[in-house]
C-alpha cells in the first residue's frame, strides 16, 4: 500500500485537489448570497484547489446551523407568558408617538428578528469601565437565583480577577452561574481566566472551540462578540464593553480606553436571556430551566416608555439582521444620522444608503477615533473615507484615548446600540446583540454625547486625505482590499 502511494502520489494528489476544490467551489457557489463573495472564493479555490479549499474551510463557511430559541416568552417556562405578551408595542402606539416611518421600522424588526418590540423598559447608559464594572459587580453581589454572563473577552487581569471572585462567591452562596467566553477572546489573556473560574466552582464553557485543543473547524472564524449579563431574570447589562482593566481609570489612569455599556430592565431582559441561553445551549448542550432561571414579570406597566427590542445577529438563521436594521434606519431618516464607531468599514450597500440619505439633505455625522487599537483596520477604513466625503457626509476624528463605543441615532428618536461594529466581521461573521430603542429622551442624550465628541474632534476633509503621500494612500487601499478578513 505504501509502495503504491509512493509510486502514484502525484495522481493521488491531483485527485484530492480536484475533489476538494470542486466540493469547496460548489459549496461557495450554492451558499454565498453575495456574488462578490462567491466569485472571490471560487477564484481562490480554482487557482489553488487544496490551499484554497483549506482556507475556505477555515474562513469561508460562515453559517452555523443550530436550533434558535425564537420566542423569549416561552423560554424556561414551558408555556407562553401572557404577562410578557401584554408589553408588546402595537403599530398604533408607535405611529401615535413616532409617526408612520418608525412604524415601518417596527414592521422590519418584526420580520427580520426573533424578538418583539416591547414597552415598559428602562435603559441607563454607563459611561466608563469604572461605572459599568461597578454596577455589574454590585448586581452580581446582590444576585439571589441566577447569573448568566456571555462575553467576547474576559481577561485574567485585576478587573477580571475581581469579576471571577464575585462570581465564585455567588456560586458559594447557592446562585446558579453560567459563564460563556468566546474561544478566540479567551486567548487574549495568558493564563486564561477559565481555570480560575472552573477551580472556583463556576460552570463555564467556551463558544465555538476548545481553548486547549484548538478552534473547531469549519467554524473557527465565527465568534460570539456579544456582551450580555443577566441577573435573576430581571436586570441585564449589555453593550460594547469586554471585561478588561484597560477600560478603567482605576488601573489605567488617563490612558484608559472608553466604551459605553447599558443597564436595562423590563421585558427586553427576557430576550437577552433567550439569546444568551441559546448560545449556552449551543456551546454546552445544557438547557437552562427551573426556578432559578424563571423570568420575573417587569415592575413597570405595559405601554410605558421605553420602547425597545433586542436584535440578535449572527451566521445562523439571524445572518445580517443588524445589516438589515441599519439599511432600514438609514432609509427612514429625514434630518440626521449620527454614528459613533471604532471600526467604520461599511459595505457598499450601507455606504450607498448613507450617501443617498446625505444627498437628499439628511445631515450625516460619523465619529471615529483618532487613536485606534487596530492600526490595520484604521488604515483600511481611512481608504473608504473619500467615498463618504465627496457625497456630503461628514467624518470626525475624535480626540483623546481610544473610544470603543458603538452608538447610532436617527432623527433624535430612534437609537441602535450594542456590540455591532460597522465592519464586515460584525455584519456577517460575528454573533452580535444590539438594542433598538425608540425613545426621544434616550436618543437626545446620545446625541449630546456625540455633540460633545465632535466639539473637540478634527474634521476629515477630502483635501487633507489627498494631500498625504501617495505611498500611504496606496497602502491604505491595499489594506482596504483585505477588509472583509480584518
From TrEMBL:
Localization, UniProt: Cell membrane; Secreted
TM regions (residue ranges): 12-31, 38-59
Entry-linked Pfam families: PLDc_2 (PF13091), PLDc_N (PF13396)
InterPro entries membership: Cardiolipin_synthase (IPR022924), CLS_N (IPR027379), PLD-like_dom (IPR025202), PLipase_D/transphosphatidylase (IPR001736)
Entry's EC annotation: 2.7.8.-
SMART domains: PLDc
Record's keyword terms, sorted: Cell membrane, Lipid biosynthesis, Lipid metabolism, Membrane, Phospholipid biosynthesis, Phospholipid metabolism, Repeat, Secreted, Transferase, Transmembrane, Transmembrane helix
Domain PLD phosphodiesterase: 220-247, 399-426
Highest taxon of source: Bacteria
Membrane topology summary: Multi-pass membrane protein
Chief localisation class: membrane
Its biological purpose: Could be a virulence factor.
NCBIfam families in alphabetical order: bac_cardiolipin
Record protein name field: Cardiolipin synthase
Organism: Neorhizobium turbinariae
Gene (name only): cls
